[in-house]
Amino acid sequence: MSASILGFPRIGSKRQLKTAVEGFWSKKISQEELLSQARQLRQDHWNLQSSQGLTQVPVGDFTFYDHVLDHAILFGIVPERYNAADAGLERYFALARGLQVPSRNIDLPSLEMVKWFDTNYHYMVPELAINQEFALDSSKIIGELEEALALGLNARPVVIGPVTLLKLSKTVSSASTLSFLPKLLPKYVELVQQLVNKGVKTIQLDEPILALDIDEETKEAFKTAYTTLSQVSGAEYLLATYFGGLGNNLSLVAELPIQALHIDLVRDPKQLPKVLSTIPESVNLSLGVVDGRNIWKTDLNNAFSLLQEAAKARPVENLTVSASCSLLHSPHSLEAETALDAELKSWLAFATEKVVEISTLASALKNGVDSVKAKFEENAAALQTRRSSTRVSNPEVKARVQALTAADYARQAEFPVRQAEQREKFNLPLFPTTTIGSFPQTSEVRRNRARFRKGEITKAEYEQYLETATRECIEWQDKAGLDVLVHGEFERTDMVEFFGEHLSGFTFTRNGWVQSYGSRCVKPPVIYGDVNRTRAMTTETAKFSQTCTSKPVKGMLTGPVTILQWSFVRDDQPRSETCQQIALAIRDEVVDLESSGTTIIQVDEPAIREGLPLRHENWDDYLQWSVDAFRLATAGVKNSTQIHTHMCYSDFNAIFQSIKRLDADVITIENAKSDLKLLHAFEKHGYKAEIGPGLYDIHSPRVPSTQEMKDRVQKMLAYLAPSLLWINPDCGLKTRGWDEVKAALNNLVDVARQLRKEH
Q: Where does L-methionine bind (predicted)?
């Protein structure tokens, strides 16, 4: 009987990794200090798992930026242009975030970045050259393995499987990425041999692609890959699948020469009987019964029932209790949440607490429930308290949802009518310029926010500071020549947390951080009950902002689907119902903004594609309620009010009809890291509304030249009419510094001016 997890959060209990990495970038600490702090973090996390009774610890799940990027380095998938950077961490971070060193004539954009399956984690897309040659650099994973072995730990290396790695990659040629498998496999064999030589017994190969619908080419690739890997003497493999059930891929997996299989029984508990009857008894099973993606306490009795079902078919020594997926997507620990409401806290479990749940379940399966009776009783009491709590349900909210009609989801007129009224009202120039919303959250912004929260300055003093920062931001945009301005969002810590703080049914943590990309961490709100807007959220700021300029200032709101996706969502009612409640709250805010004089309103939905189910059979239902939620939030305004939305890191081709059905007047999209591939969809499907494909990547500190951005626009004009094209960055500017923002936006405005002369 064993207990283990697939991976642990990297960032540390107090975001130590973020501090160390950003300290290294700013040259406040040396490379040696960075490596030392990272080593201590890894050891702390391994020791935590071991102390709680886990029988194996994952090794290789730690990364300075992204685990997929680490695998690109591991197998030598480094585009030749990055050889301009020094080998090691400079090249690594150049791939991750770009590198601009004029004195060395280096100007490298970063790799493309997209979402990791249906999560809010972003990964860097490996880029395969036409004549790609692979080269193994195992120094990182071998080094971390040696660290764990030196501590006397039973270590299990974690490696992304070869099929998933190639499926997540891209190539500049028209060839399938799987066509590179024959060249890549020898490097996997070489890596496995090195790990076996170090005394490793089991190697975890992550293949989450098996939770998707896969074609025959992919199935054949799995057979080839695992037949080849099975030939390494002494190697045993744990094939890890997660984010969904195996579905029709189960028979394929049953044929693979593996020694252990991990399945996600949180996303798909109903797959267990078929797995037990189909997977050979010689294959050990790792059972993911604890949710690695959400923060609610596990129902130990329900989880134990699944384990008992497995134990009836397999010897317990051939079973492992685990989380559904890596705990990467969970915050570190509840220990620091001393200010959290005691009742709400009793309903939650972060990564550290999930490790305890796993250990408890393993003990129950091995020694009987009585051996951990007190823990089971405590768990049941907390769950009953949650089920019976009056703070969870709001009858007025439920009644309002029930009373909705088809008219609540439709604008007054079709887009051409609205467009004509909006153009007459705003009189914007050709190629109007704007930004996506946020401006730099400088150390001064964060310091004043912290001083206010600590009571060092009064509310009036803090609000005065925010007004000053907002006015300066708007005046700079006005002077720079931007056409539609934003207020900068200095009052907001996060685009979801800010709104959750103004809505009932939400609660918040102090240290519930999870990694989004690189050193960027987010602290998702917790939706525990019915959602309702109790007061206006942004109207006063919007009214003040408009007094700072004669140009239009956008009202900035986060859309209902994104608030849902980027929160820890209650699991006691359908997500679609929670989303409707949020949509009504945002609708109230949209209507109030219009009434107060803000008539360009942006309702961001960067997560709408992210929430798409991994299996096609579930798409229609999701796309229906998610698009309906956006329409419900935005349909209550006049024709002359212009509704914008923003989306990022999304492949729109498969869901384009749903994107059109959003019925937004202007859509801005991430584009600079995507090689214009998204624009093919807009041309192919005949998108007629206005659109702003991002001209430069805001996740990199580099400043693009005017010519670089103009060249990008010229390519866009092959797909889009000049009368429909907006000029804007990829995303919000929150994480950037003012110097680079000003330089980049000055260049962006210059692009628009040149284009107006030419058109």
A: 436-438, 489, 604
Q: Which of 120, 197, 117, 127 is nearest to 157 (CA)?
A: 197
Annotated binding site: 18, 120, 436-438, 489, 520-521, 566, 604, 646, 648, 670, 731
What is the spatial distance between Cα 581 and Cα 623, in angstroms, rounded to a whole number? 17
Residue ranges at the known binding site for L-methionine: 436-438, 489, 604
Range of the domain at 606: 395-399+417-758
CA dihedral of residues 320, 322, 324, 327 (deg, nearest 10): -150
Is residue 321 a contact partner of residue 365, using CB atoms and an 8 Å limit? yes
> What are the tokens at 756?
């107006």
Residue 284 in tokens: 């050990």
Using DSSP's 3-state secondary structure scheme, residue 93 falls into helix
pTM of the model: 0.92
* Distance set, CA 653 to CA 19, 552, 683 (Å): 38, 32, 10
Say if residue 466 is in the same domain as residue 527: yes
Burial (CB count within 10 angstroms: exposed 0-12, middle 13-18, buried 19+), residue 196:
middle
Q: In this predicted model, what pLDDT tens digit does every residue of 665-712 receive, in sequence order?
A: 999 988 776 666 677 777 777 788 999 989 988 888 889 999 999 999
Give catalytic residues, as residue numbers: 699
**Ramachandran category for residue 676: left, alpha or beta (phi over 0 → left; psi -120 to 50 → alpha):** left
pLDDT tens-place string over residues 549-569: 999 999 999 999 999 999 999
Residue 720, pLDDT > 90, answer no
> Of the residues 341, 368, 388, which one is the last residue of a structural domain?
388
Number of domains in the chain: 2
